[in-house]
């Protein structure tokens, strides 16, 4: 469970990223956050695992405050939260397997990870994670040899190897083509349903949001302007979130 | 519609060349002022030229038998360069990490580290060797130490600049995974800079071979000692064999190292 309590974020240049956010996200939900660029989607997501420090309020992960956590307890909380980025953020020169195994380092003593001595069990779970996203045969390829969609699946596998209880995906499909987008979103949805991992995704395309989400949160200028099930997210409500009627380009099109 | 011929008055005004002229003027001024202050004169060069030819004449043919005599010294030079580069490259790793402002965010750490690096890089290797000779006496040890210090400066400087230009994505990912700082460096930073680092070490080895060849002039071991000796005894045929031998070794190592570095990056 993720709880936001009066969370605000003001950037050093005075821009308000988040304004008094109060939210509770329950286990197993598939939440999609929508809003215009600059509405605070990324800030909201990154404040959950504290890649961004909030300036006011507190965020609780399963009752534990990540806002107050330090050192090892902060790393322990982060270990339970997988993250998927728009730019994949893999080490391109390293093999796929090593990238996936890097998700395990939080569980192992430092010396083991430095020597690359991963326990058999960890290597096994890395292969399992790759199998789950259907790129097992790429395990020994360098990440740079893979297509964008494949790289994104490697980063999903990394989050799986991490045995994350929550997965945050920050615009995971923004740099992918429509067909690959569908595959990656399907992977996320399947993992959410099979393993019960709470999933929070930032998306640009509102038809994708409708298709995959169990709950949609609309942000506008750092404030929650919509929070409800997909059925309530009508075109009119979206128009409110975006502050104008929906354009063609906010829809991914027929493939999705 | 047809294009009308472009009238001369329609040409855009070219940007002013004043800055270029001024730069060239200042450079010329500096050049001639330096020449005057150092008493360099063309007439001296002309007068001295026959001496130069005389020297060259004495250098030819090289004393081919001398090669065998200097082979141990040449191998010693290569060994010195190898040891100095290795020690320097190892010590350079922590210094490079401490100097990179995307690894150590606090400038209380990276400023002192960079300051030390700058000091190291200011001291010429020959001076370092001379200092170590006066401490440890004649031999290869002061030479190796001088090359070590010199290598630290070069490798650490190039490496920390490479570290500062790496992709921050994997670093963010490692933070999100819950890695501690050491794991963060080993999984986010090192895989990205390792090829650059190896390339810089090879390059430093090339430079060190050349540097090691003259360290003997101040008594720090290697082939340089023989330069000094043969020049002192006016045995110019021997000097030229040393020069040729050094040239061959340097070219060979440069070639191998360049090929290796091409493969890396």
UniProtKB/TrEMBL annotation, chain A:
Residue span(s) of domain ABC transporter: 2-246
SUPFAM superfamilies, alphabetized: P-loop containing nucleoside triphosphate hydrolases
The organism's place on the tree of life at top rank: Bacteria
GO molecular function: ABC-type phosphonate transporter activity; ATP binding; ATP hydrolysis activity
InterPro entries: AAA+_ATPase, ABC_transporter-like_ATP-bd, ABC_transporter-like_CS, ABC_transpr_PhnC, MetN_ABC_transporter-like, P-loop_NTPase
Cited SMART domains: AAA (SM00382)
Keywords: ATP-binding, Cell membrane, Membrane, Nucleotide-binding, Phosphonate transport, Translocase, Transport
This protein's record includes keyword DNA-binding: no
Gene Ontology terms: cellular component: membrane
Matching CDD domains: ABC_PhnC_transporter
Protein name in UniProt: Phosphonate ABC transporter ATP-binding protein
Lineage: Bacteria, Bacillati, Bacillota, Bacilli, Bacillales
Automatic annotation (TrEMBL), chain B:
Keyword Kinase appears in the UniProt entry: no
Any one Pfam family match given in the protein's UniProt record, by short name: BPD_transp_1
CDD domains assigned: TM_PBP2 (cd06261)
Listed transmembrane segments: 81-103, 184-203, 209-227, 239-257
Subcellular location: Cell membrane
GO cellular component, one term: plasma membrane
InterPro entries per record: MetI-like, MetI-like_sf, PhnE/PtxC
Membrane protein topology class: Multi-pass membrane protein
Domain of life where this protein originates: Bacteria
Keyword list, A-Z: Cell membrane, Membrane, Transmembrane, Transmembrane helix, Transport
GO molecular function, one term: ABC-type phosphonate transporter activity
Residue ranges constituting the ABC transmembrane type-1 domain according to the UniProt record: 74-257
NCBIfam families reported for this sequence: PhnE
Similarity annotation: Belongs to the binding-protein-dependent transport system permease family.
Protein name: ABC transmembrane type-1 domain-containing protein
Taxonomic path: Bacteria, Bacillati, Bacillota, Bacilli, Bacillales
């Amino acid at each position: 469970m993720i709880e936001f309590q009066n969370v605000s974020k003001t950037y050093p240049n005075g821009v308000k990223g988040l304004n008094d956010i109060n939210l509770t996200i329950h286990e197993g939900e598939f939440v999609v956050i929508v809003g215009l660029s600059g509405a605070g989607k990324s800030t909201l997501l990154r404040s959950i695992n504290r890649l961004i420090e909030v300036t006011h309020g507190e965020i609780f992960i399963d009752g534990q405050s990540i806002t107050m956590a330090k050192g090892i307890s902060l790393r322990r909380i982060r270990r339970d939260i997988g993250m998927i980025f728009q730019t994949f953020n893999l080490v391109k020169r390293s093999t796929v397997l090593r990238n996936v195994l890097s998700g395990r380092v939080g569980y192992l003593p430092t010396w083991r990870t430095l020597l690359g001595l991963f326990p058999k069990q960890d290597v096994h779970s890395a292969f399992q994670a790759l199998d789950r996203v259907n790129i097992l045969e790429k395990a020994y390829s360098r990440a740079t040899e893979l297509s964008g969609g494949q790289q994104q699946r490697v980063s999903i596998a990394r989050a799986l190897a991490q045995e994350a209880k929550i997965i945050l995906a920050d615009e995971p499909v923004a740099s992918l083509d429509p067909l690959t987008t569908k595959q990656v979103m399907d992977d996320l949805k399947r993992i959410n349903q099979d393993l019960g991992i709470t999933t929070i995704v930032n998306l640009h395309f509102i038809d994708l949001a409708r298709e995959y989400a169990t709950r949609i949160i609309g942000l506008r200028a750092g404030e929650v302007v919509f929070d409800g099930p997909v059925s309530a997210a009508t075109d009119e409500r979206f128009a409110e979130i975006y502050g104008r009627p929906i354009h063609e380009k906010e829809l991914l099109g027929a493939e999705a | 519609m047809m294009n009308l011929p472009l009238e001369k008055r329609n040409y855009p005004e070219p940007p002013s060349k004043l800055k270029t002229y001024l730069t060239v003027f200042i450079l010329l001024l500096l050049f001639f002022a330096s020449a005057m202050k150092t008493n360099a004169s063309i007439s001296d060069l002309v007068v001295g030229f026959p001496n130069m030819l005389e020297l060259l004449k004495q250098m030819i043919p090289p004393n081919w038998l001398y090669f065998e005599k200097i082979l141990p010294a040449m191998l010693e030079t290569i060994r010195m360069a190898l040891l100095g580069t290795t020690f320097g490259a190892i010590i350079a790793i922590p210094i490079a990490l401490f100097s990179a402002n995307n690894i150590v965010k606090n400038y209380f750490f990276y400023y002192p580290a960079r300051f030390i690096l700058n000091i190291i890089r200011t001291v010429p290797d020959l001076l370092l060797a001379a200092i170590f000779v006066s401490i440890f006496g004649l031999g290869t040890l002061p030479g190796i130490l001088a090359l070590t210090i010199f290598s630290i400066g070069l490798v650490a400087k190039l490496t920390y600049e490479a570290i500062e230009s790496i992709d921050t994505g994997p670093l963010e990912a490692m933070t999100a995974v819950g890695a501690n700082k050491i794991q963060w460096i080993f999984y986010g930073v090192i895989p990205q800079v390792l090829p650059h680092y190896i390339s810089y070490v090879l390059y430093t080895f090339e430079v060190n071979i050349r540097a090691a060849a003259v360290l003997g002039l101040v008594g720090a071991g290697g082939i340089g000692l023989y330069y000094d000796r043969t020049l002192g005894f006016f045995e110019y045929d021997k000097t030229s064999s040393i020069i040729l031998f050094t040239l061959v070794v340097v070219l060979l190592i440069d070639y191998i190292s360049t090929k290796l570095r091409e493969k890396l990056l």
